[in-house]
């Protein structure tokens, strides 16, 4: 079976690259290792440096192609088609059949298209993409996973869970898994994380007892209002309602998180986020 690569540009529908350009063979991608950058502060009174913080930096993902051509004019025409497609100042979402449930969000940089040898009829093309986040993401978010056991390789120590494990009803204390390589932190790391909330009562508080992050919303509700905590901001019908909150947010640690819901009679909560990997 020939390797496959699918590309979406600026959230447009996915394109199978080898169907769009039948004269191109996809030879896989090379994903550089994660880049961890540490910041230090000079100490005036002791040897060495004082650690400030660490950040994952951008890395590079290389897409490898093989372009066959017949004549010089054929070469020029195919070369131009590839440059027109890849040389765009847009965000590319890329996934392959080797890891079909993972996607990268990338930006292209310059590359050459030329025969691998004088008189040759093939161009071995290496297209470097910058990966600004340094991460790869699950193809689907938590509410659109079919079954983590099916979608992810065995051996990752992930319990058998599905999308219903991210939709919580009635249980005031429950476990919520974050299968990511990193904590889901919508404040410091600007991670995409939405909590869709409805309840019965005059207020609701959601508490992660593992890190003491708390979100509280105050306002009468009888399952007739839906509050969306989008990162660190709360909305109702797309209107900002932060004034009705404690200006808090929820952070998820890696692995199992212990969540409590207080202050209301009943509730219906959905936790929506992509899984993030280094």
From TrEMBL:
Pfam families registered for this protein in UniProt: Sipho_tail
Source taxon at top rank: Bacteria
Protein name: Siphovirus-type tail component RIFT-related domain-containing protein
Species whose genome carries this gene: Fructilactobacillus lindneri DSM 20690 = JCM 11027
Residue ranges occupied by any Siphovirus-type tail component RIFT-related domain in the UniProt entry: 14-112
UniProt cross-references to InterPro entries, sorted A to Z: Siphovirus-type_tail_N
